[in-house]
Structures are given as structure tokens and as C-alpha cells.
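>> received
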Amino acid sequence: MPDQQERPDQAPESTLTVLLALGANLGIAIAKIVAAVVTGSASMAAEAAHSVADTFNEILLLVGLRRSERAADRRHPFGYGKERYIWTLLVAVAIFGMGALFAYYQGVQTLIGHQGEEADPLVGYIVLAIALVLEGTSWRQALRQIRGEARQERLGFLAYIRRTDEPTAVSVLLEDSAALLGLLLAFAGLGLHQLTGSPVWDGIGSVCIGVLLTAVALVLGRINLNLLIGTQADPRIVADVRDRLGAAPEIEWVVDILTMTVGADRVLVCARLDFRDALTAGDVERACVRLAHELRAAHEEIDEVFIEPVPRDDPELRQRVIARYGEQGGASTAP
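>> returned
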């Protein structure tokens, strides 16, 4: 298991990553809009819409970061951690609604012959080259953050992206990756239009940018939808919690463990335990307090621990466990 006490605070670096992306996208969006007006290129117009959407998205991510860090209160006793996922889900919607749909529109308009005359594309090439440099800077920061966090978690790069409960940097990385690929597509659309004299290539480039943005929106939407529904904690944490509880002298049997991610680096643990029959009520109470403290000390992600003393041979409880995990998983409740 990773040493949980050495985990860095991700919030400041996530904020830096988003701010860097915001500055880059704002400058790029303005430049692309000017270039799209000057050149009349559909691909450039699609890329301008892409950068406008990305600029708007970084603002949403900043709002999500700020609001999700509010402390728990009476109305929200588990805190506001999941609000980050709502704002990041809105980012996925914005990528599709503001970027992809406009790119499709521009591409189709060009393909059916409703495009204007394209001027000298030199301005477009210059803007795209500058955008590549700026997007690359933002992309490297997001990549550096994710790689560092993956090493801290002792996970591979893709495994970390699948498991992370902090989607902000992932959102920026996917946005910037799409932006870099989109710039290459816009380069190709401009170049092929100039070489062949046919605007079809420009339209195809715009449609391809729309497809790319749709794919990014779907991936981001899936990640945040799972987090909003409530995913299990890192399997390594679950396994360690089970081992620690099972090794406690007061515990006869670990009947069931439920975990749920309630925010970035915040986990809720519910454990149903069969305590030894010889214990008094006071012994059980003290054991529950001690075990909860030990689990939080071992894993700083664990925010709340609920322990329920239960008999392991209760038939209704057994059926509920089997319904969730299957016969093999439910076998742990057998006497």
C-alpha cells in the first residue's frame, strides 16, 4: 500500500493547472477568432469555438474546485466534495454543446458548399503554430501533475485515470490533448485546401474536430457520472481495511464492508462486524472507537467510519450481501 501520510495536497496544484490552462485558452481563443475571420477557414472557426469552450470550461473547473472545498455543515454532513464532479460534468456538456456541435455545423456547411471565400491562410498557420506552443505548455503541466499523482499512488498512468477521484487535472489533460490534435487537424484542413483548391478538405477537418470533441466529452462524462453515482474506494484501501478489521482481537468475523468516494481524497467506510460474544457492550463501544481511529490514521482519505455490530448468520443480511457481491462474495457471511 502507498504511504498515505506522504500524499501531497492536490488542490493547490490542480488550481495551478486550471489557471495555466485558462490563460492559454483565453489567448488562443482570441487569436483563433481573428484568424477565422481573416481566413474564412471552417477548420479555424471550429478551432476557435473549441478554444472558447475550453476557456469557459476552465472557469467551471475553478468554480468546482472552490465550492467543493467547503467544510461540512448541518445540511451537508459529508461535505461538498461531490460538487466538483457536477461542475466537471458540466465541462463535458460544454465541450460537446459549445465545441463539437459548432464544429459539425461548420464542417457540414463547408461540405455542402455554403462556405465563404478563403483568404491567404498564412495568418491561420501563424496562429495555429502559436497555439501549439501555448497548448503544449498547459498540456505538459497537466501531464506532469497526473504522472506525479500516479507515482504517489503507485499506479500506472491509465490505471490512475480510471481510478482517480480527482477529475480536474484529467479534464485539463483531455481538453488539451484534444486541442493539440484539433490543431493538427486544422493545419491539415488549411494545408489541403491550399494545395488542392478544394474546400472539402477544410470541411472534413472541421467534422473531424467535432468527432474528437465528442469523444472527449463522452469520456469525461463517463468518469464524472460514475463518481457522482458513488464509486467504491481504491480496492487496495478496501483490502487493507478488511485485513485490519479482521485482525482485531474483538472481531470474530468481517461480515461486510461498504465504501464510497464522497469527494477528492475523501472516503466513507461502513463495516458490519460480528464481535466476539464474550465482549460486554462497553467493550464493543470502545472497540468501535479504536478501530475507527486506526483506520483514519492508516488512510487519510478515510473521512468517516461507521461500524455496525451484526450476527454473521443472519439470513436476511446474508441475502443482501449475496445480492450485491454474488454467492462467492457473500460466502464470507457463512458461519
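>> The chain is about 70% helix and 10% strand.
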